Description:
Shape of chain A: globular
Mean pLDDT of chain A: 88
Low-confidence stretches of chain A: 1-10
Distance between the termini of chain B: 26 Å
Shape of chain B: elongated
Order of helices and strands of chain B: HHHHHHHHHH
Number of helices of chain A: 5
Strand content of chain A: 25-35%
Helix content of chain A: 25-40%
Oligomer: heterodimer
Largest sheet of chain A: 5 strands, parallel
Structural class of chain A: alpha/beta
CATH architecture of chain A: 3-Layer(aba) Sandwich
Distance between the termini of chain A: 42 Å
Strand order of the largest sheet of chain A: 7-8-9-5-10
CATH topology of chain A: Rossmann fold
Mean pLDDT of chain B: 91
Radius of gyration of chain B: 18 Å
Helix content of chain B: over 70%
Number of strands of chain A: 10
Amino acid sequence: MVVCVGGSAVLRQETFPPTRLHAENLACRRGGRLIFEGLSFTLGQAEAIALTGRNGAGKSSLIAMLCGRLRPDGGAIRLEGGDEEAQLAEISHLVGHRDGLKTALTARENLAFAQDVLGDAAATPEEALAVVGLPHAAELPVGYLSAGQRRRVALARLLVSRRPYWLLDEPMSALDAASQLMLAGLMRDHLAQGGAILAATHGPLGLDGTREVRIGP
Amino acid sequence: MRRAFLAILKRDLALAGRAGGGGELALVFFLTLVVLVPFALGPDLNLLSRIGPAILWLGALLSVLIGLDRLFQSDEEDGSLDLIRASALPLELAVLSKGLAHWLTTGLPLAVVSPLLGLLVALPGEGVLPLVATLLVGTPALSFIGAGGAALAASLRRGGLIVPVLVAPLTVPVLIFGVSAANAALGGTVPFLTPFLILCAISLMAIVVGTVAAAAALRSAD
């Protein structure tokens, strides 16, 4: 299957092996205070979840739990199907507030590093930068880029290495209108290949058929 | 997996070379410290050459310690650590890679310039090679003991000096055997090899224990 992303690059992709994520009765406690409890949802292939909730409801904490950085204070996160040993963190991409970029390295170096560390190489760093509209920034240190451009370099990481789960924390923040459309296009292509997306967001993601999981009132 | 290991090593070496990487800071600090000592002690060459190995070892120890807090903290702050956690590479090997890069950019250069600084403390000629050898095999222990402390402080926003304070007491055996090996080469009753081999053993042990401890600390960090 050949997918055209934004008309600017052609990436070879096939579908992911079937897996399903189950979050059961999750509870989160931060600094002794209960943030949320009894949160359950499942996320499978070609599904997208928009995680909503007021500020401080625990959206970022939930994503930290899913990627293994926080231990749940109750409940469990299970992965059904696929490799028995695989942890969710090892088959998911995380793009969060902390963009995971080294300011002293160039955009290309950052992406090449991510590709080597994450494995499952897909697009080359140059191709990925072209897709997010930053082909000219490849040799610039990331420290020279604006917040929105950095976010786009971080999003390019989704393309350099192929992983079925995308965990996005406020992916639209700092992006201009054109970049938001570009990201929506990337997410649609990812879903079309059987990927899964969980995005914490305050605004619309620009995807059809997104389920909403709300934390707190 | 080897690719991820090498990628972390390569990236940390590149970062140390770029502006603000801190690679050269340890060297300059070492130089400053060793230059200051003769001013404090006075120009007594006999005294200086007798305590020369101790001064150089102390200088190297402090120089390694001052940059340690950034070892994992910078990766934690910008989210790179999440990227490394998301790798199939076991966290222990990631720590090993980072520790190795730390040694290559601090401990190794310190050992290499130490003969030059030995001149400033009137280190006798026959003591130069043994000193370099002790620093070469002893500084990896500092890097990896330090990695354990740095991992504990990774999520502290203003860790600052806590890492050197945490780590310094643990480096006492390294300092004792490093200095005694360097001194043994200048004469005395103990042969050079006895403390030197113990120093090698401490280093090997620190690489294993420090790596496992740092990975455990990074896993349980909130």
